[in-house]
Specification:
The complex is a heterodimer. Chain A is 0% helix and 47% strand. Chain A is built from no helices and nine strands. In chain A, the strands form two sheets. Chain A has a five-stranded mixed β-sheet with strand order 1-9-8-3-4, with no helix packed on it. In chain A, strands 2-7-6-5 form a four-stranded antiparallel β-sheet, with no helix packed on it. The chains are: A mainly beta, B mainly beta.
Chain lengths: 110, 114
């Protein structure tokens, strides 16, 4: 079973920031938080991952709470192309227990 | 660079028939994964290879599913005999290191068992 819980769905207005939460209260010290997304009829796409510190890349930012029990993926300026299912996954650096849950279906609205 | 290639993209078979899927990972990627994604669910790992050795096949239904990765490159996943509940998208992914992050996924093969 997935070690994370996410809301089933969220809406976001185009051009606004999309903040996707994830709870992982049983995360272990050596486990990372990974985010992937899956656009309709495509394979999942890696977005970002982190251990303790906040991370940012060209796609998104990842904010991890100090106790590491939850995190938020931020898409700073959502576009219609960001409409997808977003998966939060907790796993060690060897891919152990790399389990996709049902994810959050994000709809970016014009 | 070229992405993960899978074929066929779509397959329709009758129950009790056999089917095979093919995957060509990104060149140089040591780790290859096969996932099953049932409609409305997240992908479920079936088997993971490191080069041509199996790392994890704990969720592979071995009575009907088999997979091989010859010479540590291409891989095939076979189902024999197929059941109705095998209807799903079969995704192949590869990654450059033995690790869970930054897996690169192919487009998948949509299997319908009638």
């Amino acid at each position: 079973d997935a070690k994370t819980t996410q809301p089933t769905s969220m809406d976001c207005a185009e051009g606004r920031a999309a903040n996707l939460p994830c709870n992982h209260s049983t995360i272990s010290g050596n486990e990372y938080v990974y985010w992937y997304r899956q656009i309709h009829s495509q394979g999942p796409q890696y977005i970002i991952h982190g251990l303790k510190n906040n991370e940012t890349n060209e796609m998104a930012s990842l904010i991890i709470t100090e106790d590491r029990k939850s995190s938020t993926l931020i898409l700073p300026h959502a576009t219609l192309r960001d409409t997808a299912v977003y998966y939060c996954i907790v796993s060690d650096n060897y891919g152990q227990n790399f389990v996709f849950g049902p994810g959050t279906r994000l709809s970016v609205l014009p | 660079e070229a992405g993960v290639a899978q074929s066929p993209r779509y397959k329709i078979i009758e129950k009790r028939q056999s089917v095979a899927f093919w995957c060509n990972p990104i060149s140089g990627h040591a780790t290859l994964y096969w996932y099953q994604q049932i409609l409305g669910q997240g992908p479920k790992l079936l088997i993971q290879f490191q080069n041509n050795g199996v790392v994890d096949d704990s969720q592979l239904p071995k009575d009907r599913f088999s997979a091989e990765r010859l010479k540590g490159v291409d891989s095939t996943l076979k189902i024999q005999p197929a059941k109705l509940e095998d209807s799903a998208v079969y995704l192949c992914a590869s990654s450059p290191d033995y690790g869970g992050y930054e897996q690169y996924f192919g487009p998948g093969t949509r299997l319908t068992v009638t």
